[in-house]
Amino acid sequence: MASTSQPLRGKRACKKIFWAVFPHACFILSLVIYAFLGALMFSHIEGNRKVNLSEEYRQFLQSLWYISRNLSDNMTENEEVFKEEIRGLLNTAERDWFVNPKDIWTFFGSLFFCCTVFTTVGYGNTYPVTRAGKYLCMLYALFGIPLMFLVLTDMGDILATVLSKSYNEFRKLQSKILASKLCSGSMCNKGDEAKSRAQSKVVINEPLTIMEVLKSQPGVKRKPIKYRNAEIFEMLIARENAYTKPARNRSIERWSSCPELARGKTMSRVMENFNNIGKQVEKLDVPIVLMVLVIFVYISCAAALLPKWETRLDFQEAFYFCFITLTTIGFGDTQLEHPKFFLFFSLYIIIGMEIVFIAFKLGQDRLIGLYKKVISFCGEKKMPSKKVYPK
């Protein structure tokens, strides 16, 4: 029996873990599939578009040819005029005149664009040009942004649970260390004496005998002679089954005999997991200073790794870029030379957005509490004092 029960327990434990992880994996897998589908669509639509040389492009070439023709041999005299004319002419140029769409809208480039869309970062250096691409971008963002927020909320619960448990364990460890420092030898001895006195006062009750159990039954008190040994034995077994048999044994017996009977309970647990999304973030209560420190360390780690493949960025520029990305500001002033390497950083972006989201939520709660205190303080000041009239 022991050899057969252990595999059953292992299977049940695996099923419980699977149904507990299933909602979180479902959200993440849906977001990944959605990003890959968007990358395929945008790379096909925007990458295969035809570049039409417009009249503005011809005028640009004519102006450039005119400026280069009128240059004199002595560059020192016309250097400032040449710089101003070239700067003004380049400001009128469009990037599509000099870039092949297939070089921008590759699969990884399109995937990077999709990530910037549903994360609401929107750097602005890559954008759809065709009318179909613009309509598709609006439709893609309409469904992608809620899915991304759902993933952020779901993963925020996991991160909030980890942070709250870590913070509570840290507080317990801190209290133990303080208690060990404050506890002197005399105080500990007094505590031990008090414990020994309390233990000496405890009265140990021995278990009841069979006759005492029978005397406690009302039926035995009325008719003690009419009961036979078999009837007394059945009464004891019935009483033991009524009080000692756990309720979960019936569910285990159903599961082992007919697993279909326990599916309703399993599905109700899965539905409960879906309904509890976002509850752990609401319960999180850690200091805002600790969250700011976590954000600083998190961004600093990425800022130290990013310049290894983005050689134009130093630590300060990489720190600025990561902060603008994780806060979904996305100015687009810092462009990446290798965006497909940054795609491997997508998990970092999602977790970082989780941390920033939790920090903003905690800051929002603190700000609401501050407003409540200020309003209550101002209300108490403006309340007229009660006048006491003589009787």
TrEMBL record:
Membrane topology: Multi-pass membrane protein
Bilayer-crossing regions: 21-45, 104-123, 135-153, 288-306, 318-336, 342-363
Keyword line: Ion channel, Ion transport, Membrane, Potassium, Transmembrane, Transmembrane helix, Transport
Keyword Transferase: no
Pfam family, any one: Ion_trans_2
Family matches, as SUPFAM superfamilies: Voltage-gated potassium channels
Subcellular location, record wording: Membrane
Potassium channel domain segment(s): 103-159, 294-364
GO biological process: stabilization of membrane potential
Entry GO terms, CC: plasma membrane
Gene3D superfamilies cross-referenced by the UniProt entry: 1.10.287.70
GO molecular function, one term: potassium ion leak channel activity
Annotated family: Belongs to the two pore domain potassium channel (TC 1.A.1.8) family.
Protein name (Swiss-Prot/TrEMBL): KCNKI protein
Species whose genome carries this gene: Crotophaga sulcirostris
